[in-house]
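Data card: per-record layout.
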Amino acid sequence: MGDDTVSVIDTATHAVTTTIEVGDQPQGVAITPDGTRAYITKQDRGTVSVIDTATNTVATTPIPVGLMPWGAAITPDGTRAYITNQYSDTVSVIGIGIETPSTSWGSFAGSRRNPGNSSVATVS
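The structure for this 124-residue chain is written out next.
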């Protein structure tokens, strides 16, 4: 997190094989079921970076989400990424394969301070 990088580790040797610059404070990571993309939350910027795992490069422009994105999860069919945004009290939904800032599918909003106050944004 402090180095603003993601390390790729060989699971057989436990050695770092490459380091990828992703920008301010990477926090969470989720890998698509086919292993071709890694979604990296960047808590200080409110964005998600997508890494192409074949080339170990950042594949898209950072995708804006909510404030302080923390965790990431990918649906089992690999079509959507869900990003938790700690300070926005939202979950952003990103369409996998169409990862541009204009194609984030929306957010579900709620409140950790007031669980009874929640709403759902339209997701298309």
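Known properties of this structure: The mean pLDDT is 81. The chain is about 0% helix and 50% strand.

See the next section for split statistics.
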